[in-house]
Specification:
251 residues; Rossmann fold; 11 strands; 28% strand
Length: 251
């Protein structure tokens, strides 16, 4: 049995190569004039969905993003990589993970996918919550931190990275899978694919049309950069190193 439809979440984040700067008033990080890209974990999730489709185990891949209209740029990149359709839930609000999860739940109920693949977390907030909460709301099986995915009939075998090493589990479809960095290496987007992506459908839906009340239980009060690292010291020999470690209470 092939996976008929796969939904992949794509989040717009500051590119991982960019040095993040905090706004002077502490209200957040500076995004004006900053290069934005697809969250790296989400890019890996899309690559895996594309490979599943290329194996003949999926018919359609839908990329879904939640955010401002500028997120269309990342969705177009996803379409250029090979996704078939894109959906943007447009909002200027900074939604919490539970509200984002409810958006996914609403779209999944409309699209009826057999598989949802998400990045394990976003590099801007590192919450690592959406996949787990989505599985709970849908009452679907879940496999998190996947480093290898194998589909077989109505099941998925997933090797996941845990503290003790690698764990292999088998889950029934439909299911939620969140992916880790070592799952694959995303493909490069070629210019002809970028041109083709402009003709692929991208639906924009206002967040207000989904009848979801944002959860205001989480508020960011202030943002500040980490303390500047202190300069290290040089020692001439091993006894001096041991002495310094003793002075700092490390040994």
């Amino acid at each position: 049995m092939s996976v008929r439809k796969i939904i992949v979440g794509l989040k717009r984040v500051i590119d991982y190569n960019v040095r993040v700067r905090v706004r002077p008033d502490g209200s957040g990080v500076e995004t004006d004039g900053v290069k934005m890209s697809i969250n790296p974990f989400d890019e890996i999730a899309l690559e895996e969905a594309l490979r599943i489709k290329e194996q003949g185990k999926a018919d359609e891949i839908i990329v879904l993003s939640i955010g401002a209209s500028e997120s269309q740029q990342q969705l177009r990149t996803g379409l250029a990589m090979g996704a078939d359709r894109a959906v943007l839930i447009e909002t200027s609000e900074n939604l919490d993970p539970l509200s984002i999860t409810k958006v996914f739940q609403k779209i999944i109920s409309q699209e009826n996918p057999n598989l949802v693949i998400l990045g394990k977390q976003a590099i801007d907030n590192d919450n690592n919550q959406t996949g787990q909460m989505l599985a709970a709301l849908l009452e679907w099986p879940q496999a998190t931190f996947a480093s290898k995915i194998s589909l077989n009939d109505t099941k998925a075998e997933v090797i996941r990275e845990v503290d003790a090493g690698l764990e292999t589990i088998e889950i029934n479809l439909p299911a939620i899978i969140t992916v880790d960095l070592r799952l694959n290496e995303p493909r490069y987007v070629k210019l002809p694919d970028i041109m083709k992506a402009k003709k692929k459908p991208l639906d924009v839906i206002a967040f207000g049309d989904l009848d979801i009340t944002p959860n205001d239980a989480i508020k960011i009060l202030n943002t500040e950069p980490p303390e500047q690292r202190q300069k290290g010291i040089m020692v001439d020999n091993v006894p001096a190193l041991i002495k310094e470690l003793e002075n700092k209470g490390l040994i």
